[in-house]
Amino acid sequence: MPDTHKRKHPGAGYVCLVAIVKRTVQASPEQIFAVLADGWTYSDWVVGTVHIRDVDEHWPQVGAQLHHKAGPWPLSLHDSSTVLAVVPNRSLKLRAGLWPLGSAVVEIILDPLTAGGTRITMKEDFEAGPLLFVRNKLNDLVLHRRNIESLRRLTDIVLRSTPKEVRR
């Protein structure tokens, strides 16, 4: 069953769920953040993103955007994701757009572990658009499974780009 947290949606009288996925990686937060800081890699690990069209030069600073294409051709949607908050080597919070379907807020948190390695926590919740209003357990399960795969892909990229002698 997906790890979710209930929260009250502002201005609405219902509770929606926040999908939370965690993964432990034998790499440092700095090694993982180096991949997050390279906006051109997002189509390699974010499930559903098929092409990065452009990345602002100041990515991943607050306000920076990466412009992406999501979904299969000919139904591909062009949109962008914007950095809402960043703590280098610790966390990245994005507004991920997918109009006309809406947008989501995605937060990635990197927690170093005392035994070595890092726990990656990925939280995602719809923020606007039709997807916000059709939330149900099936959608939450699909979102949860998608994010498990995204973190698996992110882990593969981090471990491929990190020499074994440098990993913690």
Automatic annotation (TrEMBL):
InterPro entries: Polyketide_cyclase/dehydratase, START-like_dom_sf. It comes from the Bacteria. CDD domains: SRPBCC (cd07812). It holds the Pfam family Polyketide_cyc2. This is Polyketide cyclase. It comes from Actinoplanes nipponensis.
